[in-house]
Structure formats: C-alpha cells, structure tokens
Write a structure and sequence with these properties.
It is built from five helices and 19 strands. The protein is α+β, with helices and mostly antiparallel strands. The protein has one domain: Mitochondrial biogenesis AIM24 (Double-stranded beta-helix), CATH 3.60.160.10. The strands form four sheets. Strands 5-6-3-10-13-8 form a six-stranded antiparallel beta sheet. It is globular and about 60 Å long. It starts with 7 loop residues before the first strand and ends in a 5-residue tail after the last helix.
Length: 264
C-alpha cells in the first residue's frame, strides 16, 4: 500500500520553470529551503528536521542520522512542509533555482528508487526519503565528477528534480552502454550500472578540453541527462567576469567592444 501522499501537479515556464502542486485536505509536500514561490490561503508552512519520511519516526537519533546524510550531499538539515489544513484543494508553487528544467518522477514506476546528482532535489510528496548513495568503486568516487556520494530518493510517491539546460530522458536496454560527460548526469534508476572510463589518446587528453574521464552508464534502466551542467555555466560566467577580453583590432578594438555591448 502506498506510504507517500499522492499529489497532483502542473509545470509552468520554459527556461525558468516552476511546479504548481495541488494538495487535497491534509496532504503535504516537502521542499528544500528557498524553493518556495507562492501558496494559496489555507496551506500551512512548517520547518522540520530531516526529510519528513516515515522512517524518521524512530526518535531523535534516527532523525539526526537521516538529516546528517542529507548534509553530506549538500542539502540542508531542515526541510519545509506545506500542508493543506483547509477543506478544499489548495495549491503551492516551487521554483527552479537556475535556468533549466524541472523533472517530475513517480517513484512507484521507477523501482521505488532514483540516484541523482547532489543538489538535484527540489520537492516531493511527504514520505519520500532523501538520503545518500555511496559509490563503491574507487575510480568512480575519485574521477566521476560527483565524488563518492550521490543523492538517493526512495519511496512510492512523486518527487521533482531540477537540472540546468535541456534534459533528455534515455531508456537503456540490457547491457546497452551510454558514454556521458560526468557533469551531464542528472539521475538514473537503481538498475543502471555507473562507472567511469579514461578518454585515452595523447591528443584527446591534452587538447580535447573534455576532461580525462567520461561516465559509462550500462542498462537496463532509465537515465536523465542535462545539456548544460551548472558548473560549466558558472565557469563560463567566471571567465567572462575575470579575464580581460582580447581587442577586436588595434584601431577598432574599443569600437568593436562598444558595438558588442561591452563598455569595459
């Protein structure tokens, strides 16, 4: 029997999306601090310790342990619970923190478990457990881009991830291999095997500009891929902010910069 609250939703927007969650009376949605956008009157907001899942009823030490696991993946020790305390349906909205896509997932159709990159979680129905997934292989932990620890979402309800850029969903057959830039992985189902592979070749290593390793995902299972990792976007912004531009010419360089909108 399902243990999570069954919430309805609608996603709005293109580049900067938000998800509108519809709550029946006494239904609750859990969200990361800072994800809240707006809500209708009749919805109560409460900050709680941990992720609000059922296993947190094991006392203070149990709650402390599970909250500590969330801290290891870069998430807050606290979450915010939004509960419909009125008699009719009420709506609450959560916004993506950067340009990209919100990914709705129904864990009951995904073997009840999703492994995803750190900081990918946005919100979920109450009862979804947010924990950690240790990478058992040394190479994956050292060179996999996400380190030894990734995020793990478990349960049978709906949850929402967010990713930067466009998101592609791929279904892998048994033993089918997909090679991906390590930063482009958003998440995958628990049946997918995650490993890393050396790019190889002197020219590829020195001049390729794509890093020394890429991830290999082996099916069966489902994979979600983002076209623009937030780290890559942040790196480009940092480069433009800290590196002086090369002039477009010795005489017309300044004019060219002005036409480009760069007022130095």
């Amino acid at each position: 029997m399902p243990q999570n609250h069954d919430i309805d939703f609608q996603i709005y927007g293109e580049e900067m999306q938000y998800v509108e969650v519809e709550l029946d009376p006494n239904e609750t949605a859990m969200a990361e601090p800072g994800a809240f956008m707006m809500m209708e009157d009749g919805v109560s907001m409460e900050t709680i310790f941990g992720d609000g899942s059922n296993h947190n009823n094991s006392g203070f030490l149990g709650k402390l342990f599970n909250a500590g696991k969330r801290a290891l993946v870069g998430e807050s020790l606290f979450m915010t619970a939004f509960t419909n305390v009125s008699f009719g349906k009420k709506k609450v909205c959560f916004a993506s923190p950067y340009p990209g896509k919100i990914i709705p997932l129904d864990l009951s159709t995904l073997q009840h478990k999703i492994i995803c990159q750190k900081d990918a979680f946005l919100c979920a129905a109450k009862g979804v457990s947010i924990g950690i997934e240790f990478q058992k292989k040394l190479g994956v932990g050292l060179f996999g881009g996400e380190g030894f620890i990734m995020e793990k979402l478990e349960g049978d309800g709906r949850c929402f991830l967010h990713a930067c850029g466009h998101v592609v969903k791929r279904q892998l057959n048994s033993h089918e291999i997909l090679k991906i830039d390590t930063g482009c992985i958003v998440g995958f189902t628990s049946t997918v095997n995650y490993d890393i592979q050396f790019v190889g070749g002197i020219k590829n290593t020195i001049f390729g500009g794509e890093g020394l390793f890429f991830a290999t995902l082996t099916g069966p299972g489902t994979v979600w891929i983002q076209s623009l990792p937030i780290s890559r976007l942040a790196g480009r912004i940092l480069t433009y902010a800290t590196v002086k531009r090369k002039e477009e010419g010795s005489i017309l360089g300044g004019i060219g910069n002005m036409l480009d909108g760069d007022n130095w």
